Amino acid sequence: MAATGDDAAAMDSISKAPTAHSAALNPAGGSGGPAGAPAEGSGSPATAPRKTTTNSDAGVETAEEAVEPADPDINELCADMFEKMALFLQGELTGTCEDYRLLENMNKLTSLKYMEMKDISINISRNLQDLNNKYASLQPYLDQINQIEEQVSSLEQAAYKLDAYSKKLEARFKKLEKR
């Protein structure tokens, strides 16, 4: 299966890497680019030396693993990686700190709102108590009004009875007068 696109580019960069390493280690054979790197297209890909032996029993060749020489820029790359990792972690921690500050501010605002609601409920309770006290002070007058209303209704009933009785008396008087 042939590699295409990004995979092929990655494979090409891997296959060209030993050339850069061998040129860096062998400055006399390199055609000058920056930091002793060979120019593109110059030279053939160099391979690490392999030791091959023949096993007389089975006729199989064995090979040792190729060891790439250390990159001289490894310290710079490590320092760059650590700087970038530090920036990343600092950004993550800054974001987390900002989230906690936001939560703290939200908690403070919520606490203030609950304090305001507490004050409002205390005022409402106080006003309700005042109204209950005023109603209690007016209760004797309300009782008097109820008694007066009952007396008025009993007087009204007595007036109706008196009116009915006076009509009967008038009718009798007229009856007696006619005789």
UniProtKB/TrEMBL annotation:
<feature type="compositionally biased region" description="Acidic residues">
    <location>
        <begin position="62"/>
        <end position="71"/>
    </location>
</feature>
<dbReference type="Pfam" id="PF10046">
    <property type="entry name" value="BLOC1_2"/>
</dbReference>
<dbReference type="GO" id="GO:0032418">
    <property type="term" value="P:lysosome localization"/>
</dbReference>
<dbReference type="GO" id="GO:0031083">
    <property type="term" value="C:BLOC-1 complex"/>
</dbReference>
<dbReference type="InterPro" id="IPR019269">
    <property type="entry name" value="BLOC1_su2"/>
</dbReference>
<dbReference type="GO" id="GO:0043015">
    <property type="term" value="F:gamma-tubulin binding"/>
</dbReference>
<feature type="region of interest" description="Disordered">
    <location>
        <begin position="1"/>
        <end position="71"/>
    </location>
</feature>
<feature type="compositionally biased region" description="Low complexity">
    <location>
        <begin position="36"/>
        <end position="49"/>
    </location>
</feature>
<comment type="similarity">
    <text>Belongs to the BLOC1S2 family.</text>
</comment>
<dbReference type="GO" id="GO:0099078">
    <property type="term" value="C:BORC complex"/>
</dbReference>
<dbReference type="GO" id="GO:0016197">
    <property type="term" value="P:endosomal transport"/>
</dbReference>
<dbReference type="GO" id="GO:0000930">
    <property type="term" value="C:gamma-tubulin complex"/>
</dbReference>
<feature type="compositionally biased region" description="Low complexity">
    <location>
        <begin position="1"/>
        <end position="12"/>
    </location>
</feature>
<protein>
    <submittedName>
        <fullName>Biogenesis of lysosome-related organelles complex 1 subunit 2</fullName>
    </submittedName>
</protein>
